[in-house]
């Protein structure tokens, strides 16, 4: 199950706080990888997932909390490398990733608003007896307030 499906399942199950925690964990960092895999079946085991090699891949990690952006560019993507024409594609993916982050943060904001409204309406009403005793939330009868 993907993160998005897990998030939706938690919402449907009424596990709102778990859904928010999951969303926050995933919202902190965005990883974008562009890589060229070999088409030679002798090089790769067909049962094992392909793994990018350092020279044939570009990795970008964006941490929105720290504001850090880390890039690793393989040698085949620079100068006269075989894959230099894929650099604009990777940059386009980074821009799309920024839009996705912005959109996800807006969705989280709406979720927080919805959750806070729901939580506030579900809080129990404070009984009259409790108010009469006084607390730091309500002034006591002895407090002389205007």
Q: Cα-atom Rg, whole angstroms?
A: 26 Å
Low-confidence stretches: none
Largest sheet: 3 strands, antiparallel
Instruction: For the largest sheet, list the strands in their spatial order.
Output: 1-2-3
What overall form do the CA principal axes indicate? Answer: elongated
What structural class do the secondary elements suggest?
Answer: alpha+beta
User: Could you state the order of secondary-structure elements as H and E?
Assistant: HHEEEHH
Features:
single chain, 146 residues, alpha+beta, three-stranded antiparallel β-sheet, 4 helices, 44% helix
Task: Note down, in words, how this protein is organized.
With 146 residues, the chain is of the alpha+beta class. The chain is 44% helix and 14% strand. The chain has a domain at 31-37 and 50-120. The chain has helices spanning 3-12, 16-27, 87-122, 128-133, and strands at residues 29-35, 57-63, 68-73.
Short précis:
This protein has helices spanning 3-12, 16-27, 87-122, 128-133, and strands at residues 29-35, 57-63, 68-73.
Q: How do the strands and helices of this protein lay out in sequence?
A:
Blueprint: H1 3-12, H2 16-27, E1 29-35, E2 57-63, E3 68-73, H3 87-122, H4 128-133
Antiparallel strand pairs: 1-2, 2-3
Helix pairs in contact: 1-2, 2-3
